[in-house]
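ingest -> validate -> predict -> emit
validate: passed (alphabet ok, no gaps, 342 aa)
predict: started
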Amino acid sequence: MPVAPEAVPSVPVDEAVDIAGAAALLDDERARHAPDIDDADADAPAEAEADTAPEATADETGPDEAGPDGAASDDGPPDFWSADDKAAWREVPEPLRPVLRKYEQQRIAFVNEKVREAARAREEAAQIVEVAASKAEQAATWWAENGPAFQKAFADKWAGVDWHRLAGENPSEWARLKQQRDDEAAMLHEANRRGEADREVARARAHHVLHQARQAEHAKLRDRHPEWFGDDKATETYRDLGRFLLDKGIAPDRINAIHEAPIIELALAAMRFEKAQKQASTAARSAAHSTARTTPTRIAPGPAGRAGNRATDSARQVGERFRQGGGASIADAAELIRLSGL
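emit:
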């Protein structure tokens, strides 16, 4: 928001800023950005009528061998008819079947056309809403930039008027100026009310856009990682990610603002890696402790190695390699967890 001028000298009323002219300028600016409501109203009945028409889906058109009218053959009933209706078709006299089939074709064509009209009407209505919301944002921005200057000009214009002296010396001039000031104050109040309404529209639109973006990004995560972001897992995963990021020192408001799928995937990978490191470290300590306690009490004849000793030795080697690598190897961590039975 631009800063208002530091000081506006008091000037006679006749030379001050014309608030009425400024309000007229605001109305011209709003009229220039106003959406064309007539087009939206004209399209609304068409959309409402189209929405009530039944929609013919691909299932109603029958298999590939059926014609565009949905009939399996020239002599048979339409393919999308129910089994009972198809059985009743056999009761229809032969001379009436072509007539019935013709009107069924016309009905399907009519329904499909209404479905296409409804889709076009919805698309046009969405575009009109988008344009109107965009213009409301522009109007809100314009008032946020110019409103403070108009308010300051109004205050400065009437600050230099000595109303008590003017009422005593020239009552008629006092009445005229007071009416002018009241009119300008009313116009300024109305302009401020409109600006606040535009700002509310802009905030609602921003919230809607953010909600749609969150849904789209969540759909990407659900498709890529159903084991983490499926319908029965998403809430728990998001809660764990929030706690993980909060432990890392990220502010809660910043965490709540994250919705981009790539960023969430990075956070998930970091959280899983940290958990794997902790499990691998636990497994390494357990393997080292188990190796230190193992003391052969008896040497049995036969092969030198035993399955249990080989598993313990493998766990010790993997744990040593994991520690030497600084705990950066996911493969070693997974192998160590497997060998340790965790």
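Residues 1-19, 33-72 have pLDDT under 50 and may be disordered.
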